[in-house]
Amino acid sequence: MRSRGLELRWRRQSQSQSMLAAVVLGVVVLLATAAACAGAQQLSQSYYASTCPNVETLVRGAVTQKLQETFNAAPGTLRLFFHDCFVRGCDASVLISGPGDEHSAGPDTTLSPDALDLITRAKAAVDADARCSNKVSCADILALAARDVVSQAGGPYYQVELGRLDGKVGTRAAVKHSLPGAGFGLDQLNKLFAANGLTQTDMIALSGAHTMGVAHCANFVRRLYPFKGAAPRSNPAMNLYFLRQLRGTCPLNKYSPAAVAMLDAVTPMKFDNGYYQTLQQQKGLLASDQALFADRRSRPTVNHFAANQTAFFDAFAAAMAKLGRVGVKSGSSDGEIRRVCTKVN
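Below the sequence we write its predicted structure tokens.
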């Protein structure tokens, strides 16, 4: 009897300890979630209402001037914002230049100089206003510029939440595993986007940014030619005529590192739902694009956006708002307002 009593007491103690551990773990998770959301909670559409009330007008003017010079700045700025938010959070760390910076790693090596110049100009325009000087972060300027290039290219105009601080660190080490690869399948894409609080629908909507811009041959050449001995990878079916066109652009082992093809060859200078229509025709340039139509789980959303541009625009605006909250810096210990966007203070 005594041994049974001891065993029962031991079991009760073990259960109590397990329950306590579960409660402690739950509290830790809640605290971590609260910490992650704290920065995003400070964001507000009227954040600069008293300190720099015309910030949106100033940024929009810089965007307009740059796009009149070159349309390349439009897709480049949108890509710059996406890369920034996915690598270290939306903190303009992607703009920092110097030894070992993010520009020198992987896909960031092809970030548009025109986009970088646009942000530099917008920052100068904002700081030239005495009320705004050194009061607006580069991260917020980038978020506004991303919205404005979309709008001026024919896409939706949406409200942007503001109040981000600029990060103090920008290293190439953070780039490698943070961005989606050109050969990703649906599961890989969903996993990466989910890690940033984004759903499959968000991912498909944000992929619609590929309605503008280009990709270098290195990102899709494996789709064009069989590589003996290469590891198997996702390669959704491609329209035969489109395949022949791309082989002319990127001849095997003879293409220039600078050679590119349009992500949406039909309306490459317009933000519309044409990207999804090209996927229906099996003319997605990147394997990660065509995978959205090839996979039965994501195809209905592609078809919906292809048929209904308003639905795409609404979903894109909602996804951009969520993207803009990723990894927001909220305190002076990890954030600041940079005087120059390309270097920390």
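The first helix runs from residue 2 to 41.
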